[in-house]
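Recap slide: Large ribosomal subunit protein bL28, sequence and predicted structure.
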Amino acid sequence: MCQVTGAVPGFGHNISHSHRRTKRRFDPNIQKKTYFVPSLGRKVTLTLSVKGIKLIDARGIEAVVADLQKRGVKL
C-alpha cells in the first residue's frame, strides 16, 4: 500500500481468446524510497507508488510529510 496516495491492488479478470474469465490482481508499482526531511532533521523511508513519487516531486517532501503527520501516519 502506498503511504501517500493509499493505492492498493485492484482486482479483475484475465479474459482468454475463448472469453473464459479467471481472477487476477492489478498490483500498483510500489517502491521503498528514502528522503531527507529538513524539518525533522533525519531521513524518512516511505513505501510509495510511482504516482506518490511524482506527487512528492511536484509538491515537495515537506508538504507531503506535513499531510502524513496530519493524518496520523507514523514516520
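The chain is about 30% helix and 35% strand.
The first strand starts at residue 10 and ends at 15.
(End of recap.)
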